[in-house]
Design goal:
alpha+beta, Rossmann fold, Dna Ligase, domain 1, D-amino Acid Aminotransferase, Chain A, domain 1, 3 domains, four-stranded parallel beta sheet, 9 helices, disordered C terminus
Length: 301
């Protein structure tokens, strides 16, 4: 098979891990900087170019689209779909997962466990949002934030109102969520491929930090997840329409709750913590499922 990885940086661990897995299984590899592509959106013969070279003949593409380039990155993925190339994650699914509000609403509609989450436009609704979340402390999140950026823990009602007022003063869209105190600053990253959780790790925030992101000093260890957590993670990925997803959940007093579904989950932390060849599992999935024109988006919304 001829497989392309859409990545801006070929030196990234995740890109390298996927590249090694593709070549180890005897496939032809191409790493493409999607921001350098341009497209010819023509009837009956859509095409995509890298400089003067027309890109074609691919059986599958693995999108590694950065959050700051979602709009153009998904357009490139969509162009490959129009050309009949099989995407590991489809353009609509990537866009769906990147919109925090939309993804929460879709998960809610399907009955997937979530922390109490509120959203409003009017700054005067701040007290009502905090009240609906059960009162302070609450977590306030920028809709456009990624990797823990734009996430604030407000420990009192007055602090929460001040943070909400400050964000709204910048015309930023925010979510206010209940704080899951019993999680103890830890979350679980479930790596889903197809309809299975193929690896899971517990991420613990450093002392004094409620965010567990590894690049913020958090630590990761292998963990055994419960059947309910496994089911919640796979259902969340399915609702988003993602074949490959990093599903972040918390252990709450009312069961597992989803924090985020990531369409381009990093491989370094999960492979190091679990010792599993997750990249190889992704390539195996491609081998079993890649078919020309097989780009039917799963899920709705």
């Amino acid at each position: 098979m001829k497989i392309a990885i859409l990545s801006r940086n070929r030196k990234l661990y995740s890109t390298q891990s996927l590249a090694k897995a593709i070549e180890a299984r005897g496939h032809e590899l191409r790493i493409i900087d999607y921001l350098k592509c341009h497209m010819n959106i023509a009837s009956h013969r859509p095409s995509i170019f890298l400089g003067e070279e027309e890109l074609g003949g691919f059986d599958a593409v693995i999108p590694r689209i950065g959050a700051s380039h979602t709009f153009f990155g998904t357009a490139v993925v969509r162009q490959f779909e129009m050309m009949g190339v099989y995407p590991v994650n489809e353009s609509v699914a990537i866009s769906r997962s990147r919109d925090k509000l939309r993804s929460m609403q879709l998960l809610s509609r399907k009955g997937v466990g979530l922390p109490v989450t509120t959203f409003a436009h009017d700054p005067k609704a701040s007290q009502d949002m905090i009240r609906l979340c059960g009162g302070a402390p609450v977590v306030i999140k920028l809709l456009e934030g990624t990797q823990g950026v734009g996430v604030v823990l407000a420990e009192t009602g007055k602090a929460a109102e001040s943070v909400i007022e400050a964000f709204r003063g910048l015309n930023a869209n925010i979510l206010v969520q209940e704080f899951i105190k019993e999680a103890g600053g830890a979350d679980i990253r479930c790596f889903v491929v197809g309809d299975k959780v193929v690896a899971a790790m517990k991420r613990q925030g450093k002392e004094g930090e409620f965010r567990s992101n590894l690049h913020r000093g958090g630590s990761a260890d292998i963990i055994k997840i419960t059947p309910e957590e496994r089911s919640t993670a796979t259902r969340a990925a399915k609702v988003m329409g993602l074949n490959v997803a990093g599903v972040d959940l918390l252990r709450s007093n009312h069961g597992p709750v989803i924090m985020e579904v990531n369409s381009s989950p990093g491989l370094e932390g999960i492979e190091a913590a679990t010792g599993k060849n997750v990249a190889g599992t992704i390539v195996e999935f491609i081998e079993k499922n890649a078919r020309a024109g097989r780009t039917k988006t799963r899920g709705k919304g």
